Amino acid sequence: MEPTPIARVPDSRLHVLEVIGNGIVGGMESVVQRLIERLPRERFAVTALCPFESPLVERLRAMAIEVVIVPMPDDPPWPSVQTALALVQSHGIDVLHSHLENAHLLAGLVGSLSGLPVLATVHGRQISMLDLEVHRAAGTHLNVVCRHSHLHALGIGLSASHLSWIPNGVDTEAFCPRPRADAGLRRDLGIDATAPLIGCVGRFSAEKGPEVFVRASLLLRSLLPDAHFVMVGDGPMREAMQAMAQRFGLADRLHLPGARHDMPEVYRQLDLLVCSSHSEAMPLAVMEAMATALPVIGTRVGGLPDLIEPGRTGWLVAPGDFQGIANRVAHVFETPGEYEAMRQAARERVVDRFNIEASVAAIGRLLTELAARRTAWRGARSATGAAG
Q1: Pairing between strand 296-299 and 118-122?
Q2: pLDDT tens digit string along 39-65?
Q3: 3-state class of 321 per DSSP?
């Protein structure tokens, strides 16, 4: 006997299919999770398409989000396209929202086959060739997260009508300055409460420049003899950075505790954050640190100049300039009044310009607008066909 299909209850909410191209513990995944958490449930229904089981998938399911797993290579197999298309049709999806190139390609194919609008958020600092090709072939709408990406997109010929610029946002209530807890990062690492603690937070991968932070730490050991340094995160270069610290004689000062799940408190245990990346867009670590009232020394790449106001919330240096990082860190600590002024200014800038509620509201408006445009276009086309 064939099972009876379960009838779906009519739903007036906008139904979004979030197509997520990866599932590692990273900035993109955190941005997507926070977006899904905060889209108003009375106005939006969300289903997620992911490439494999992961901690992100577990967190989404814990939020009562339906997650479907399909492979998402850069050349998606037909079963992935077919599964995604069936999901769109059976769930009454109104708009697809993709994250990363491979997800954009899959969403673009499914959007073209189903006639649905596709929003692709580009989390990197440049539009890739694959993103550009999918955009042009499938008529997708691109959203970028920093000024550098927006100017790059316009520079390579994208139409402003098919391009949006919505910065990432940070939860300024979760990430906020409070007195340091007695338990936490410093106690775990055996670091005195009064010692300056300079942090680097992010994935240990080449584009993040972890070796630049290690080299800056070596210089700072002479400039700030009491300071300690911590690299919070994980990734393929972690063991190489541990070996580098050993070779430089930094084992007693440079700490690599791995990924942490108490990040609001981790930032409160720090005195200053360094972002040594060679390539960035709008790094969440910098936004979270600033929301927690930390000055930031960062490289002049991607969206970091959107966040860091030199001399007010921190300083910017050239990519790879470990000596410049060390000098700026020492300057902040040694210049009377600068550190506290930067703490206050960093918090104010994020609260005023990069609050997550504003970011989520803007994404929600864009998704609604794209779905409405397609509905209006369909209606006009149907009327023209009927008149003919």
Answers
A1: unpaired
A2: 999 999 999 999 999 999 999 999 999
A3: coil
Site of tokens 């989390």: 123
Q: For residues 60 and 193, give the distance between their C-alpha atoms in angstroms, rounded to a whole number.
A: 37
> Six-digit token pair at 68?
């479907």
d(CA 144, CA 131): 12
Q: How many CB atoms lie within 10 A of CB 32?
A: 24
pTM of structure: 0.89
Tokens of 142: 């691109």
Phi-psi region of 302 (alpha: psi -120 to 50; beta: other; left: phi over 0): left
- CA dist 307 and 310 (Å) reads 10
What is the rounded distance in angstroms from the CA atom of residue 107 to the CA atom of residue 89? 14
Residue entry with tokens 């009519």: 10
- Give the Cα separation of 168 and 29 in Å (integer): 12
Helix axes 322-334, 338-353, angle to 10 degrees: 110
Cα 121 to the chain's mean position, in Å?
10
Cα separation, 305 vs 327, in Å, equals 19
